[in-house]
Amino acid sequence: MASKTFSLFEVILPWPGQICPGLRWLFLRMLSSMVDAGADLIVNQLFYDTDIFLKFMNNCRQIGITCPIVPGIMPINNYKGFLCVTGFCIILADIITALEPIKDNEEAVKSYGIHLELKCARRF
C-alpha cells in the first residue's frame, strides 16, 4: 500500500444549524460527503459556546462522521480585536456583558480570555 503524501481537511463553522435549524442536517450531509471524498480531519472555526460545539460533534458522530474534529480555540486578547473577529459568530450575551466593563483594560481582557478558553477546554 502506498503511503499518503498529504492530508485533506475541511474547515467548518459548527453553528449553521443554530441560525436555521433546517440547515443543520443539510450542512452535516454536505460535510459527511466531504469526509467521504477524502477529508482526513475537520478543523472547526473559532467559537465561544462550548455547548454548540459539543452538540455539533455529537451530530457528526450520529451521522457517521468519525474523523477527528479539531476545535477552533482563539483566546480573547483585546476587546476591539474580539469584536472584529467575532462579527460573523454567534456570541453569548454573558461574554459581552463580562467584557464591556473591562474593555479598556487590556490585561483584564486577556485574563478573561484565558479564563474563558480554559473553561471551554476543560469541557472537552
Automatic annotation (TrEMBL):
Its cofactor is FAD. One of its GO terms (cellular component) is cytosol. Keywords: FAD, Flavoprotein, Oxidoreductase. Pathway: One-carbon metabolism; tetrahydrofolate interconversion. The keyword Isomerase does not apply. The keyword Ribosomal protein does not apply. Signal peptide: none annotated. Pfam families: MTHFR (PF02219). GO terms for biological process: methionine biosynthetic process; tetrahydrofolate interconversion. GO terms for molecular function: FAD binding; methylenetetrahydrofolate reductase [NAD(P)H] activity. This is Methylenetetrahydrofolate reductase. InterPro entries: FAD-linked_oxidoreductase-like, Mehydrof_redctse-like. Belongs to the methylenetetrahydrofolate reductase family.
